[in-house]
Amino acid sequence: MRQIFLDTETTGLYPAHGHRIIEIAAVEMINRRPTKNHFHVYLNPEREIDPAAQEVHGITLEFLQDKPLFGSVAQDLIAFVNNAELIIHNAPFDVGFLNSELGRIGLQPIETVCGKIVDTLKMAKDSRPGQRNNLDALCRHFGIDNSRRTLHGALLDAELLAEVYMAMTRGQDSLMMDLGQTQAVNTQQLVAAGERHLKISNASEVELEAHAEYVKSLEKAGAKTW
Length: 226
Prior knowledge:
Blueprint: E1 2-10, E2 21-30, E3 33-42, H1 51-57, H2 61-64, H3 70-81, E4 85-88, H4 91-104, E5 116-119, H5 120-127, H6 135-142, H7 154-168, H8 170-173, H9 175-197, H10 205-220
Parallel strand pairs: 1-4, 4-5
Antiparallel strand pairs: 1-2, 2-3
Helix pairs in contact: 6-7
Protein backbone atom coordinates (compact mmCIF):
# COMPACT_ATOMS: atom_id res chain seq x y z
CA MET A 1 0.00 0.00 0.00
CA ARG A 2 1.35 3.42 -1.00
CA GLN A 3 0.72 6.28 1.41
CA ILE A 4 1.65 9.95 1.09
CA PHE A 5 1.93 12.21 4.14
CA LEU A 6 1.28 15.78 3.04
CA ASP A 7 1.51 19.23 4.59
CA THR A 8 1.33 22.81 3.32
CA GLU A 9 2.20 26.29 4.53
CA THR A 10 0.13 29.24 3.35
CA THR A 11 -0.11 33.04 3.30
CA GLY A 12 -3.15 32.94 5.60
CA LEU A 13 -6.08 30.87 6.74
CA TYR A 14 -8.72 31.18 4.02
CA PRO A 15 -8.32 30.35 0.32
CA ALA A 16 -11.70 32.02 -0.30
CA HIS A 17 -10.06 35.31 0.79
CA GLY A 18 -7.35 34.88 -1.83
CA HIS A 19 -4.72 33.26 0.36
CA ARG A 20 -2.25 30.97 -1.40
CA ILE A 21 0.03 28.01 -0.76
CA ILE A 22 3.72 28.89 -0.29
CA GLU A 23 5.14 25.46 0.57
CA ILE A 24 4.10 21.87 -0.16
CA ALA A 25 5.76 18.72 1.15
CA ALA A 26 4.75 15.11 0.60
CA VAL A 27 6.56 12.09 2.04
CA GLU A 28 6.11 8.58 0.62
CA MET A 29 5.64 5.35 2.53
CA ILE A 30 5.05 1.91 0.99
CA ASN A 31 3.73 -0.97 3.08
CA ARG A 32 4.27 1.12 6.22
CA ARG A 33 7.95 1.66 5.44
CA PRO A 34 9.41 5.08 4.51
CA THR A 35 11.02 5.12 1.07
CA LYS A 36 12.94 8.42 1.47
CA ASN A 37 11.13 9.55 -1.67
CA HIS A 38 9.48 12.94 -1.25
CA PHE A 39 8.06 15.96 -3.07
CA HIS A 40 8.97 19.39 -1.69
CA VAL A 41 8.63 22.88 -3.17
CA TYR A 42 8.41 26.52 -2.10
CA LEU A 43 6.05 28.65 -4.17
CA ASN A 44 5.71 32.32 -5.06
CA PRO A 45 2.18 33.25 -3.89
CA GLU A 46 2.03 36.51 -5.88
CA ARG A 47 0.58 38.25 -2.82
CA GLU A 48 1.50 39.39 0.68
CA ILE A 49 1.83 36.99 3.60
CA ASP A 50 -0.29 37.72 6.68
CA PRO A 51 1.93 38.66 9.65
CA ALA A 52 0.22 36.05 11.87
CA ALA A 53 0.95 33.31 9.31
CA GLN A 54 4.56 34.43 8.94
CA GLU A 55 5.02 34.16 12.71
CA VAL A 56 3.96 30.50 12.47
CA HIS A 57 6.17 29.35 9.58
CA GLY A 58 8.81 32.09 9.33
CA ILE A 59 8.70 32.16 5.52
CA THR A 60 9.11 35.64 4.04
CA LEU A 61 7.91 37.03 0.74
CA GLU A 62 11.49 38.04 -0.08
CA PHE A 63 12.56 34.39 0.18
CA LEU A 64 9.75 33.35 -2.19
CA GLN A 65 10.31 35.93 -4.91
CA ASP A 66 12.36 33.61 -7.14
CA LYS A 67 10.33 30.46 -6.41
CA PRO A 68 8.05 28.82 -9.02
CA LEU A 69 4.33 29.43 -9.35
CA PHE A 70 1.93 26.63 -8.40
CA GLY A 71 0.96 26.06 -12.04
CA SER A 72 4.51 25.06 -12.96
CA VAL A 73 4.66 22.27 -10.34
CA ALA A 74 1.05 21.10 -10.35
CA GLN A 75 1.55 18.17 -12.71
CA ASP A 76 4.56 16.94 -10.74
CA LEU A 77 2.49 17.04 -7.55
CA ILE A 78 -0.38 15.18 -9.20
CA ALA A 79 1.98 12.51 -10.49
CA PHE A 80 3.49 12.07 -7.03
CA VAL A 81 0.17 11.58 -5.19
CA ASN A 82 -1.58 9.70 -7.99
CA ASN A 83 -3.56 6.68 -6.69
CA ALA A 84 -1.93 6.94 -3.25
CA GLU A 85 -3.66 7.19 0.11
CA LEU A 86 -3.20 10.81 1.16
CA ILE A 87 -2.73 11.33 4.91
CA ILE A 88 -3.02 14.87 6.27
CA HIS A 89 -3.36 16.42 9.72
CA ASN A 90 -6.46 18.64 9.56
CA ALA A 91 -7.14 17.52 5.99
CA PRO A 92 -9.97 20.00 5.23
CA PHE A 93 -7.52 22.89 5.57
CA ASP A 94 -4.84 21.54 3.20
CA VAL A 95 -7.31 19.99 0.78
CA GLY A 96 -9.21 23.28 0.60
CA PHE A 97 -6.03 25.14 -0.35
CA LEU A 98 -4.90 22.47 -2.82
CA ASN A 99 -8.26 22.47 -4.56
CA SER A 100 -8.26 26.26 -4.70
CA GLU A 101 -4.85 26.22 -6.38
CA LEU A 102 -5.87 23.43 -8.76
CA GLY A 103 -9.10 25.24 -9.63
CA ARG A 104 -7.18 28.41 -10.50
CA ILE A 105 -5.45 26.57 -13.35
CA GLY A 106 -8.45 24.54 -14.45
CA LEU A 107 -7.51 21.18 -12.92
CA GLN A 108 -9.72 18.69 -11.05
CA PRO A 109 -9.83 18.52 -7.22
CA ILE A 110 -7.15 16.50 -5.47
CA GLU A 111 -9.76 13.89 -4.44
CA THR A 112 -10.03 12.79 -8.08
CA VAL A 113 -6.30 12.05 -8.19
CA CYS A 114 -5.52 10.20 -4.98
CA GLY A 115 -7.12 6.97 -3.87
CA LYS A 116 -8.26 8.12 -0.42
CA ILE A 117 -7.80 10.99 2.04
CA VAL A 118 -7.25 10.28 5.75
CA ASP A 119 -7.52 13.06 8.35
CA THR A 120 -5.23 12.24 11.28
CA LEU A 121 -6.67 15.11 13.33
CA LYS A 122 -10.08 13.43 13.23
CA MET A 123 -8.44 10.09 14.11
CA ALA A 124 -6.72 11.69 17.10
CA LYS A 125 -9.90 13.41 18.30
CA ASP A 126 -11.80 10.12 18.09
CA SER A 127 -9.17 8.29 20.14
CA ARG A 128 -8.28 11.19 22.48
CA PRO A 129 -11.49 13.18 22.99
CA GLY A 130 -11.17 16.40 24.94
CA GLN A 131 -7.37 16.53 24.64
CA ARG A 132 -5.01 18.69 22.59
CA ASN A 133 -4.38 16.89 19.33
CA ASN A 134 -2.13 19.18 17.35
CA LEU A 135 1.08 17.73 15.95
CA ASP A 136 3.23 18.87 18.88
CA ALA A 137 0.82 17.35 21.42
CA LEU A 138 0.73 14.05 19.55
CA CYS A 139 4.53 13.95 19.31
CA ARG A 140 4.71 14.40 23.08
CA HIS A 141 2.04 11.75 23.64
CA PHE A 142 3.83 9.15 21.50
CA GLY A 143 7.37 10.08 22.57
CA ILE A 144 8.42 11.37 19.13
CA ASP A 145 11.31 13.84 19.03
CA ASN A 146 10.06 17.13 17.59
CA SER A 147 12.84 19.32 18.98
CA ARG A 148 13.71 20.56 15.48
CA ARG A 149 10.22 22.02 15.11
CA THR A 150 10.90 25.57 16.30
CA LEU A 151 8.74 26.85 13.41
CA HIS A 152 6.19 25.11 11.22
CA GLY A 153 7.73 23.73 8.04
CA ALA A 154 5.89 21.52 5.57
CA LEU A 155 8.64 18.92 5.04
CA LEU A 156 9.48 18.43 8.72
CA ASP A 157 5.79 18.37 9.62
CA ALA A 158 5.07 15.74 6.96
CA GLU A 159 7.92 13.58 8.31
CA LEU A 160 6.68 13.97 11.90
CA LEU A 161 3.14 13.19 10.78
CA ALA A 162 4.35 9.92 9.27
CA GLU A 163 5.87 8.95 12.63
CA VAL A 164 2.74 9.98 14.52
CA TYR A 165 0.52 8.00 12.16
CA MET A 166 2.67 4.90 12.57
CA ALA A 167 2.38 5.23 16.34
CA MET A 168 -1.38 5.78 16.15
CA THR A 169 -1.88 2.70 13.99
CA ARG A 170 0.84 0.46 15.44
CA GLY A 171 -1.66 -2.34 16.18
CA GLN A 172 -2.39 -2.76 12.47
CA ASP A 173 1.30 -3.29 11.75
CA SER A 174 1.69 -6.07 14.31
CA LEU A 175 -1.67 -7.80 13.87
CA MET A 176 -0.43 -10.73 11.80
CA MET A 177 2.66 -11.06 13.97
CA ASP A 178 0.49 -11.16 17.07
CA LEU A 179 -1.75 -13.80 15.52
CA GLY A 180 1.28 -15.95 14.71
CA GLN A 181 2.70 -15.54 18.19
CA THR A 182 -0.66 -16.39 19.75
CA GLN A 183 -0.89 -19.55 17.68
CA ALA A 184 2.64 -20.57 18.72
CA VAL A 185 1.89 -19.90 22.37
CA ASN A 186 -1.33 -21.88 22.19
CA THR A 187 0.53 -24.81 20.64
CA GLN A 188 3.16 -24.68 23.36
CA GLN A 189 0.45 -24.54 26.01
CA LEU A 190 -1.24 -27.60 24.53
CA VAL A 191 2.03 -29.52 24.49
CA ALA A 192 2.76 -28.47 28.05
CA ALA A 193 -0.73 -29.45 29.15
CA GLY A 194 -0.35 -32.83 27.46
CA GLU A 195 2.97 -33.38 29.20
CA ARG A 196 1.40 -32.64 32.56
CA HIS A 197 -1.22 -35.35 32.04
CA LEU A 198 1.07 -37.92 30.38
CA LYS A 199 1.97 -40.83 32.69
CA ILE A 200 5.40 -42.32 31.94
CA SER A 201 6.13 -45.91 33.15
CA ASN A 202 9.58 -47.49 32.93
CA ALA A 203 9.87 -51.18 31.94
CA SER A 204 10.76 -53.61 34.71
CA GLU A 205 13.81 -55.87 34.57
CA VAL A 206 11.56 -58.88 33.84
CA GLU A 207 9.95 -57.03 30.92
CA LEU A 208 13.35 -55.99 29.56
CA GLU A 209 14.66 -59.56 29.68
CA ALA A 210 11.51 -60.81 27.97
CA HIS A 211 11.95 -58.18 25.24
CA ALA A 212 15.60 -59.24 24.72
CA GLU A 213 14.61 -62.89 24.35
CA TYR A 214 11.91 -61.88 21.84
CA VAL A 215 14.44 -59.93 19.73
CA LYS A 216 16.84 -62.90 19.73
CA SER A 217 14.10 -65.20 18.52
CA LEU A 218 13.33 -62.81 15.65
CA GLU A 219 17.00 -62.71 14.65
CA LYS A 220 17.13 -66.51 14.57
CA ALA A 221 14.10 -66.53 12.36
CA GLY A 222 15.83 -64.13 9.96
CA ALA A 223 13.50 -61.22 10.65
CA LYS A 224 14.65 -57.57 10.47
CA THR A 225 14.78 -55.84 13.81
CA TRP A 226 14.87 -52.06 13.01
